[in-house]
Amino acid sequence: MAWDDLTSALGHCFNDKALLRLALTHRSHGAQHNERLEFLGDSVLNCAIADELYRRFPHLNEGDLSRARALLVRQQTLFDRAEALGLGDKLLLGAGELRSGGKHRPSILADALEAIIGAVYVDAGFDSARAVVCHIFDPVLASADQTVLGKDSKTLLQELLQAKHMPLPQYSIVAIHGEAHCQRFTVECTIAGLSIRAQGEGLSRRAAEQNAAALAYRQAAST
User: Fold this and answer.
1) What CATH code is carried by the domain that includes residue 131?
2) In the annotation, is 52 catalytic?
3) Catalytic residue among 97, 111, 114, 123
4) How far is CA 40 from CA 84, 117, 136, 197, in A?
5) In this structure, is residue 148 part of a structural domain?
6) Which of 86, 91, 115 is nearest to 101 (CA)?
């Protein structure tokens, strides 16, 4: 299998291409799989993101930096970045995992992305791994507002409505899709005083609420 398009998207050409194959190999595929690289990549990712946040946002305090890092390295964000790279179609999965939709499963994709970061670290060291992390996460970091980066969307929306002397938003589950092990939630955020109804999806109710709040915040901030 050729992964030239993936290495191009990562911005890293592997000296040892076997490392990339291992990073994309799920445990369902065989005894040699990506879990050790995932373990390594998780630590490298956290360090690289912390370093980049420290450099990019000199005015954020320790608490805000910690919250910003948590938002960037959570499963939902990793899943989104993995999908942007098209990892699902490149994973090596066992037949059972393929039949059950493993190539679309958020946990598998997020873990594979961490494994790839670990593979780059083993292949070429921390500086190269950091460069790949920055490349992957640049679209998120470039659009980040340093005044709100350390706060989650529900907190931002609540603070905005309080400043407008308005009641807090209401959240309700609209739908739950998928099987028990791979559910996606749709939640609606309602702000009655502004006639705003915003829907968000996520891998958990909390994630869906955050995504709905982000949409509602953008609408409320413009009124």
Assistant:
1) 1.10.1520.10
2) no
3) 114
4) 22, 8, 17, 42
5) no
6) 91
Q: Give the pTM.
A: 0.72
Give strand pairing partners of 200: 187
156-182 pLDDT, tens digit each: 899 889 988 899 999 999 999 887 777
Q: Cα 203 from chain centroid?
A: 11
Whole-angstrom Cα Rg for the chain: 19
Assess whether 114 carries a catalytic annotation.
yes
Residue in the block written with tokens 């990506």: 34
**Cα 177-182-188 angle, rounded to 5 deg:** 40
Pick the catalytic residue: 42, 123, 188, 209? 42
Kindly state the tokens that stand for 186.
Answer: 């749709």
**Tens of pLDDT along 118-147?**
999 999 999 999 999 999 999 888 766 544
How far is residue 147's CA from residue 151's CA, in Å, rounded to a whole number?
9
Query: Which amino acid belongs to residue 102?
Result: G
Ranges of the chain whose pLDDT falls below 70: 1-2, 143-151
Examine the domain organization and report whether 162 and 208 are in the same domain: yes
CA distance 147 to 215: 18
In the chain, how many domains are there? 2
Which residue type is seen at 50? A
For residue 43, what are the domain limits?
A: 4-142
Q: Is residue 61 part of a domain?
A: yes
CA distance 99 to 97: 5
The tokens describing 66, both together, are: 């910690």
Q: ∠ CA 78-81-87 to the nearest 5 degrees?
A: 100
